[in-house]
Write a structure and sequence with these properties.
The chain is an alpha+beta fold. The chain is built from three helices and four strands.
Length: 102
């Protein structure tokens, strides 16, 4: 299992509008990708315009090749890209330990 962590910077005046658009893009595009295994969307309280998306992928290649090189990625960026104040920062992590909230 790989976790992709995406840090989005959105213009503060578009903060409220971006949340529903991101949620829709995840549900209609991202979650349909091969290897997708779950996600969370976080809206920063202290920094309006900052969102963090975590995506669980079966393999790194499911994201970097399967999704990023597919037509679905173009659709994904078309939905969320217009909100970007700067390009998102993306990194991949291995899960060392995890516990779901009660």
């Amino acid at each position: 299992m790989i976790v992709e962590v995406v840090d989005f910077k959105i213009a503060p005046e578009q903060h409220e509008a971006f949340g529903p658009v991101l949620k829709n893009a995840v549900q209609t595009v991202l979650s349909q990708a091969a290897g997708y295994a779950g996600h969370s969307v976080l809206a920063c309280i202290e920094t309006p315009g900052r969102y963090v998306l975590t995506v669980h992928w079966e393999t790194l290649e499911d994201h970097t090749v399967g999704f990023r090189e597919s037509p679905a990625f173009t659709a994904w960026r078309a939905l969320i890209g217009p909100f970007f104040a700067q390009p998102p920062h993306v990194e991949h992590f291995l899960v060392v330990d995890s516990r779901a909230p009660n």
